[in-house]
Write a structure and sequence with these properties.
By secondary structure, the protein is α+β, with helices and mostly antiparallel strands. Helix content is about 20%, strand content about 30%. It contains 17 helices and 51 strands. Strands 14, 17, 18, 20, 21 and 23 form a six-stranded antiparallel sheet that branches. A hairpin with a 5-residue loop joins strand 49 and strand 50. Helix 9 runs parallel beside helix 11. The longest helix is centred in the last third of the chain and has 15 residues. It is globular. The two termini are about 40 Å apart.
Length: about 950
């Protein structure tokens, strides 16, 4: 029996194929030269699209005879985390992160298995294939084909004449299309192999001349056999395709693109319905690939390669057949109507819904590079001009400044401007209130005391926290915003690594963070990580129930951020090594097209929302826009130059977020809105970092430094008002908690917090809490009482029996605010865990447990993990694991007993892993006892999984 040798070379994301025989079958198996033990060797390229063999096959079926020693090597085809594992054998390779790096697994073939990538989400994305143990010789062969004939002569459908005989060309794509050199092709990159049949193949320009367009049409010919096949490669683009067309009617019978790779692969066509009818072949390249974005390279896959059309008497089988289900076709590039417009022109070309108007409020030279802004209690805009970005200046040489803009007459133009402060350094976030201005300027969180009467600093900036990282300066602390609980919230990106604490604090008193949401208390000066994960969020807001939402880039964009939650990460590992899995997006959609990853959809995704890159987050809670917009979340789609609108809907313990039609289209590729906020009139202001470069670069010269805009969006219902809530009485501030526009609610709450405890205020707020029938108004009163110190523990405990789930939930969060609760509160928590019918309440209880010492969590978690109704919840199974995980270190036997009672799908497997990680003799003994008990049970997939995990844990 011959020994199979199949090596797949993987270079730069392209699959390479050596020259094949006419029938496009795979190379004959060759003996392995290494006689040390390896009988069969496979090599695959790993990408998010799947594992690719050298002949182009996606997730090929790998074969071996029983007893063969097999080695599978993968090479990373992209900058992404990948590995390869065998499911039944429980074997896993090392993890790759860098493009071009390789790793392998070696094993003895015993039974058929499944190979896959273990990185969460990658198997579901398509990184999975079959390994088969077979008998007899392993070889790939197919039946012989026949070139179609006309008038008794074979047609030149395989280009073996070296000419375009029997074809008619239009355009310039096929001016000199036939090539006959050995691979690599002269019009493709030197590391690409085409794998053509015979001596010639056809290309519409290859990667070298991808801009060319045109059509090539064959002469008609008669279908004489029931099946046909041809070889194709090149772009998986809508306008680079091969068509089979019925002559006479010109009806397209079949079409196929390439799959974004160089290697020709056979495509099989069933022509049985067209036997004895005339058809012709049309090869189309209408895709220039020319990027309309200055810094985005042209698409080299905007071409098509073709070869070797043949008929077959029965359906042929090819080991590397290109199946239509494996091709993810991308639409044409989105049209970009405008670029580089003046501010006035930019406003004129934007498309809005009926009833809305957009006005240019300010523009260069009055404003340049607005990176963040807020609206103060007088309805004025505080805006940071970012002159220093993207490189922090030497200490004392910062050039950023904070400006105050005001519309004094309601015409939508910001006609009054002041400079509050200048000389700041690399500012990325800013908020106003509580006596001053709060500034994120890595490596510091600053507080600038303010004299708001004169709009001047009342003292020098104070360094509240330091240790904020600078590795990636568009992922530093940003999106500062007051939360309903009186904390200052912000977001932080994944590629910047921070170790935050008070100036001079040792590591033991600091908090490590990269991706996530953090918060800082303006009075107690506590700092903490609220939730971790995602990518580079640059947008944060709260809905009317006080639930936080953020927008992110590259990975799916929308997350309901839960206190203590751990979320899908673009890169890196969670700080807690025992996390094992994380919470995925709350959206049921993405804003890019196709499944080739977020970047593949860049500038082709207008139909889905515009692309993966987002900035800003505004949950509209004004009261002048139509009701259909209230509580929806708006975010700017940077690549698509659109304002996306998503709609959160309660589901289980949290939300499912659906996509609504895009609210606004800028029609300008330089438009880059960074945030949006509504004001006392219900109108919305937006800052625009106007720049031809849509992507962050550490090179300052890439960014335009002379432009910037502010726009105002109004609805016909908006009525301009002038207000100054700083002059409102305490009674008026309390009444503002009932206002339909949440701008008043938030501003009034912050002012009440700054003014401090007040018995009359507390009495009035408690009346709202007790008597108002609207739960959102009750919540406003509850939050205002909390920030002003108006609630006792007993009052909060009493609220645990409230008939509204939102009130009960927030009572739990506020009781656990200080990371400690009384015995009575803990007793009530346990009762609620057993009896409450709200999954939202159970989620808040779980978050509260994450804030308490592990030994206080047992009773509550014992009840929560047995709630079978939560086993399919989006959030609770993992949140409960995060709360239960530390218990293994407290009492591993009791933790295991808890896991065995749990109805959460991964609780027991994760607990086995966690106990195995302890690595003591006691932990091994406990796992062996469990192994014996499981071994006596009826065989099931779950019991098998536990056995495998225990065996692995004991091995390690």
């Amino acid at each position: 029996m011959p020994i199979l040798y199949l090596i797949v070379t993987l270079l730069s994301g392209f699959v390479l194929l050596p020259k094949t025989v006419c029938r496009a079958q795979a190379p004959e198996p060759k003996p392995v030269q290494d006689t040390t033990a390896i009988n069969r060797e496979y090599a695959l390229e790993a990408t998010m699209l799947g594992f690719f063999a050298k002949n182009g096959a996606r997730n090929p079926t790998l074969k071996a005879n029983k007893g063969d020693r097999v080695r599978i090597t993968i090479t990373n085809g992209e900058v992404m985390t990948h590995d390869i594992a065998l499911e039944k054998l429980g074997l896993k390779s090392k993890t790759l992160q860098d493009k071009g790096k390789s790793t392998s697994i070696t094993f003895t073939a015993d039974k058929s298995d499944t190979y896959f990538c273990t990185v969460p989400g990658h198997r579901a994305a398509g990184m999975v294939g079959s390994f088969e143990v077979v008998e007899g010789t392993i070889a790939d062969a197919t039946i012989a084909g026949q070139v179609p004939v006309k008038n008794g002569q074979p047609l030149n459908l395989n280009f073996e004449t070296g000419t375009l005989q029997d074809w008619t060309a239009t355009g310039d794509a096929f001016a000199s299309p036939v090539f006959a050199q050995d691979d690599p092709s002269p019009v493709h990159e030197k590391d690409m192999h085409i794998g053509y049949a015979g001596n010639y193949f056809l290309s519409s320009g290859g990667t070298a001349n991808a801009k060319r367009t045109g059509t090539l049409t064959s002469v008609p010919f008669t279908v004489t056999q029931p099946f046909a096949a041809f070889m194709v490669s090149g772009g998986a683009l809508q306008d680079t395709r091969v068509e089979l067309v019925q002559a006479g009617t010109n009806t397209v019978l079949f079409h196929s693109t390439g799959q974004g790779r160089a290697t020709l692969q056979p495509v099989v066509v069933d022509l049985q319905p067209y036997l004895n009818k005339d058809i012709y072949i049309r090869i189309i390249d209408n895709e220039t690939g020319i990027s309309q974005i200055p810094y985005i390279p042209h698409d080299k896959w905007a071409h098509i390669n073709f070869d070797n059309f043949q008929f077959y008497p029965t359906r042929p089988t090819f080991p590397n057949e290109l199946k239509q289900k494996d091709i993810i076709i991308m639409p044409p590039l989105d049209p970009v109507l405008h670029a580089g417009l003046s501010g006035t022109e930019a406003a004129k070309v934007m498309t809005l819904p009926k009833g809305f108007t957009i006005t240019l409020a300010a523009a260069e030279p009055e404003l340049v590079k607005p990176i963040c802004f807020t609206v103060d209690a007088r309805g004025r805009l505080w805006v940071v001009e970012s002159h220093t970005y993207p490189v922090r200046a030497p200490e004392g040489q910062g050039r950023d400044r904070i400006l105050i803009f005001e519309d004094t007459d309601g015409d939508g133009t910001l006609d009054k401007k002041k400079i509050f402060i200048d000389g700041l350094n690399l500012v990325s976030g800013m908020e106003v209130g509580m006596g001053g201005v709060w500034v994120g300027a890595a490596p510091y969180l600053l507080f600038i005391p303010a004299d708001f009467k004169n709009d001047k600093p009342a003292g020098p900036p104070q360094k509240l926290l330091d240790g904020w990282g600078l590795e990636d300066t568009h992922e530093t602390l940003n999106s500062l915003r007051w939360g309903p609980d009186g904390w200052l919230y912000g977001t932080h990106g994944v590629f910047t690594h921070s170790n935050v604490g008070k100036p001079g604090a040792p590591d033991s008193e600091r908090t490590k963070l990269n991706a996530g949401v953090w918060r800082y208390h303006p009075i107690s000066h506590q700092f903490e990580l609220f939730a971790e994960g995602t990518s580079n969020p640059w947008g944060l807001d709260f809905n009317e129930y006080g639930h936080a939402f953020i927008t992110a880039c590259v990975i799916p964009h929308m997350y309901h951020m839960i206190q203590g939650g751990r979320y899908q990460r673009q890169a890196g590992k969670h700080f807690n090594l025992y996390t094992y899995d994380d919470i995925k997006t709350h959206a049921d959609h993405v804003h890019w097209v196709g499944e080739r990853g977020p970047h593949a959809g860049n500038f082709r995704s207008a139909s889905a929302g515009g692309g993966h890159a987002h900035a800003g987050a505004m949950i509209y809670l004004g009261n002048s826009w139509p009701q259909e917009y209230r509580n929806d979340i708006f975010m700017n789609n940077i690549n698509g130059a659109k304002l996306n609108q998503d709609h959160p809907v309660r589901a289980g313990s949290g939300y499912i977020v659906t996509h609504k039609p895009d609210f606004l289209t800028m029609n300008d590729s330089w438009s880059q809105w960074l945030n949006m906020k509504y004001d006392p009139s219900g109108s919305v202001w937006a800052i625009d970092w106007y720049d031809k470069n849509q992507c962050h670069s550490p090179n300052p010269d890439v960014h335009n430094k002379t432009m910037g805009r502010i726009f105002k969006i109004t609805h016909d219902n908006d009525k301009w008002v002038q207000v100054d809530l700083t002059k409102a009485s305490d009674k008026e501030l309390v009444n503002y908690q009932l206002n339909g526009n949440d701008w008043y609610v938030r501003q009034a709450r912050t002012i009440l917090q700054e003014r401090g405890p007040n018995k009359k205020v507390h009495k009035a707020l408690k009346e709202i809490l007790a008597k108002n029938t609207d739960p959102t108004r009750k919540l406003r009163a509850l939050w205002a009482l909390h920030v002003t110190g108006g609630l006792t523990e007993k009052e909060l405990i009493d609220l645990l029996a409230n008939d509204n789930e939102y009130i009960r939930s927030w009572a739990i969060q506020l009781l656990a605010e200080d990371k400690t609760v009384s015995p009575e509160a803990l007793k009530q928590f346990a009762a609620i865990a057993r009896q409450d019918n709200s999954s939202l309440v159970r989620l808040y209880l779980t978050s509260a447990m994450l804030r308490l010492e592990p030994n206080q969590r047992w009773d509550v978690l014992d009840a929560l993990v047995q709630k079978a109704s939560d086993k399919d919840d989006h959030n609770l199974p993992l949140m409960l694991w995060y709360a239960a995980e530390p218990l293994a270190a407290v009492d591993m036997k009791r933790a295991l007993e808890l896991a065995q009672k749990s109805t959460m799908p991964k609780h027991l497997p994760y607990t086995v892993q966690r106990i195995g990680a302890i690595g003591t003799e006691e932990s091994k003994k406990l796992l062996k006892e469990l192994q014996d008990r499981v071994g006596k049970r009826e065989h099931s997939p779950k019991n098998h999984e536990i056995q495998v995990l225990i065996a692995k844990a004991l091995e390690e």
